[in-house]
Design a protein that fits this description.
With 171 residues, the chain is an alpha+beta fold. Helix content is 31%, strand content 22%. It comes from Pseudictyota dubia.
């Protein structure tokens, strides 16, 4: 105690991971906090959680109407589920793990990138596919995989941070 302004992390009752997400991804923090036990569970988990944190731009792209629907108390259950789809509790999923290509499979003839070893992740909300972003094509036909990894239909990883034993992927 030298009387410095340094406060201990326990002071405000928030875990390191909750503070990180609240400071960097406030909208995602407010969405996840609709599940009241999530922060405690994440901080008590021995193996660490993996969070896919949508950034401000991702929320902006939802548009006002969808954002209002998420905040509407009548949609609480849906919002809770939506939050849980962004959290993996079983084991930390590194960005390397999401990008690992499966070279036991034959090379795609159409020149698209090698398939991935991971086909999906099981989040607290349910299973979410992991694949490659497709571009071009028309109405879903003839689209080619362009190589960037996407989680779910279109969440691309912008950057990843290790926070304690957890991993936060910005999407």
């Amino acid at each position: 105690g030298d009387g410095g302004s340094e406060s201990s992390p326990e002071d405000d009752g928030r875990s390191e991971i909750e503070r990180f997400i609240e400071d960097n991804y406030p909208q995602f923090h407010s969405l996840l906090s609709k599940n009241p036990t999530i922060w405690q569970e994440a901080s008590e988990a021995s193996g660490g959680y993996t969070f896919f944190a949508p950034n401000a731009q991702a929320f902006e792209e939802l548009g006002d109407k969808k954002q209002r629907q998420i905040e509407d108390p009548r949609n609480l259950e849906t919002a809770q589920k939506l939050g849980l789809y962004h959290v993996v509790s079983v084991e930390p999923v590194s960005s390397m793990r999401l990008r690992t290509e499966d070279w036991t499979k034959p090379r795609p003839k159409d020149g698209s990138p090698q398939p991935l070893t991971i086909g999906g992740i099981v989040t607290l909300g349910g299973e979410v596919p992991v694949g490659r972003k497709k571009s071009g094509g028309f109405l879903g036909f003839g689209a080619k995989e362009d190589g960037s990894i996407v989680v779910g239909p279109e969440a691309a990883i912008v950057q990843s941070n290790n926070v304690g034993s957890s991993i936060v992927h910005e999407v």
